[in-house]
Design brief:
Methane Monooxygenase Hydroxylase, Chain G, domain 1; two-stranded antiparallel ribbon; 22% strand; alpha+beta; Thrombin, subunit H; 5 helices; 193 residues; five-stranded antiparallel sheet
Length: 193
Amino acid sequence: MISRDPAFICHVSWNYCYIRKRNLKGRRVEISPKLLKGQKVVHALYGIGQIEQVEEKKILGTIAKYATISFQNDRLKILVNMDQKNELLRELITKKDVPKIYRFLKNCKNILPVKSSDRYNVNLEKLKGADIYKLAEVIKDLAMLSREKKLTPKELSMLKQSKKMMSLEISYVTGKDEEEIESILDTTLKSDS
């Protein structure tokens, strides 16, 4: 039987945890799934969220440890299964990572598919990986492509959302204004034209 708890949101099939991040060599490193109440995390599709509670629940006859994560000032809540792996969730970057991300943004170069639907799917897969460097790749690729030709509405929306997500996370970590971070991102992207 599915719980009638108001903290249980939508899909039981959204099973993610085991936060991952990159080490200095770019390899993924698993971090223990010790999520604490009040901790900030980043979801690949929803942005920065805060853990409201961690508890054991019985859903569909199985007892598991779940974390309730709130996004967008409590307008969206999801329930995350702590006993299973997924790559949609990760820790926030640190202040030390910000210059590395700017350097990566300035220097990364990729070859994108010519067909817009293929490009969109490639970029969407990068975004679902919850990796800050893949997010930077999407921003760089779409920004460079927008200088060469007009982006499709989906790609334009993806570029805006990706820039917003990155600027929001960097502004949260550095304590700077989000608009200031967006202008730094724009300057960084233009410096490699």
